[in-house]
Specification:
11 helices, Phosphorylase Kinase, domain 1, 35% helix, two-stranded antiparallel ribbon, 356 residues, 2 domains, alpha+beta, Transferase(Phosphotransferase), domain 1, single chain, Prot_kinase_dom
């Protein structure tokens, strides 16, 4: 953590009694009694350079209430103002209303000059793909079950994620997976009409469903529950292998595009390591079901939850027989809290889970 008075970052001491009380309260019960607008006394940047970059955004490190490490996401400076405003409004509108253990919590917005930051808990293990690459003991089935729970919650609340991939799933210190990045998300049946090129061309064909790539208009390319479920199958492949779909076509986007449009699948991994991690015929079959070229034939998110939970139960006796415990252990699985009504807006008290 940088010294508060160093590195040239402007910072004013907070009113200590109030911040100390809020910090203690937040630490104890993970509730922050405030609206979504954060002020200088509540949050600050702790680094002058971003620690991560996405297609349109940068991620910075900050400090919340004087002691909590947080991620501060902002859109890239070169994006046109009107485009940036639309994306920020859309992401904030969707993200601030979500409340589930497998959705990255939204803490609030912080405005510093012309820059708007979206603030969330810092996830110590980074994104899910990096996590499985660096952690030999990571349990892909457990992570995938958690992601399926989060996706099922989104669809139940009539939210389409629109950009599901392992890079947009983050893992806490305790190995808990949370879906993030709602820049392409929308509410089903919403009145917002997508007409912008930035939305139409967004995403990468490695994770996109064929119907999106074949579309000739924005309306035809509209994301759906079925395109989310297609992308979930790609996430399964990523977490079992530690590699992006079609990794063997690195840099050859046009070939990937044509293969997906023709309904062709990525190659099935044949190494023993993936089998040990749970990629058996059952899971490969579920993946290919997700990739069905007919959207109506793909499994629902609710069905994905059921299949992954069954796979975890089947994995547990094997762990017990080996004298160890799996991260898919029933003791380590937490059922999601009942979702709050979607009518709860960003200006009401929020219950958040910081990474542990």
């Amino acid at each position: 953590m940088l010294p508060r008075e160093s590195k040239g970052i402007p910072w004013s001491p907070p009113p200590k009694p109030q911040i100390t009380l809020l910090s203690a309260l937040y630490s104890a019960i993970r509730i922050y009694p405030a609206n979504s607008s954060l002020h200088d006394c509540e949050i600050r940047l702790t680094k002058l350079v971003p620690v991560g970059q996405g297609g349109y955004s940068d991620c910075w490190v900050g400090e919340f209430l004087g002691c909590f490490k947080v991620a501060m996401k902002t859109l890239r400076a070169f994006i046109q103002d009107d485009v940036a405003k639309r994306r920020l409004k859309r992401e904030t509108n969707v993200w601030s209303r979500l409340d589930h253990p497998n959705i990255l919590p939204f803490i609030g917005q912080y405005v510093q000059g012309p820059t708007i930051y979206m603030v969330s808990p810092w996830m110590e293990n980074g994104d899910a793909l990096t996590y499985v690459q660096r952690s030999p003991d990571a349990n892909p089935l457990q992570l995938l079950a958690q992601v399926a729970e989060g996706l099922s919650y989104l669809h139940k609340e009539r939210v389409i994620h629109g950009d599901l991939k392992a890079a947009n799933i983050f893992v806490s210190h305790s190995g808990h997976a949370c879906i993030a990045d709602f820049g392409l998300s929308e509410f089903l049946g919403g009145h917002e009409v997508r007409c912008s090129t930035e939305w139409y061309v967004a995403g990468h064909p490695r994770w996109q469903a064929p119907e999106i790539l074949k579309a000739t208009s924005n309306e035809e390319a509209r994301r759906t529950k079925e395109t989310d479920n297609f992308a979930y199958g790609r996430v399964m492949l990523e977490l079992f292998t530690g590699k992006v779909p079609f990794f063997y076509l690195s840099g050859d986007t046009s070939s990937v595009l044509l293969m997906v449009m023709r309904g062709e699948f990525p190659e099935r991994p044949t190494d023993k390591g993936t089998a040990v991690k749970g990629l058996d015929d059952n899971m490969w079959g579920l993946m290919t079901d997700c990739w069905n070229i007919d959207p109506a034939s793909r499994p629902s998110a609710k069905h994905l939850v059921s299949r992954l939970q069954a796979a975890l139960r089947a994995q547990q006796p094997l762990s017990d027989a080996n004298g160890g415990s799996s991260s898919g252990d029933s003791k380590s699985r937490k059922r999601p809290r009942s979702p709050r009504a979607m009518s709860r807006g960003p200006h009401k008290t929020k219950q958040l889970k910081m990474s542990t």
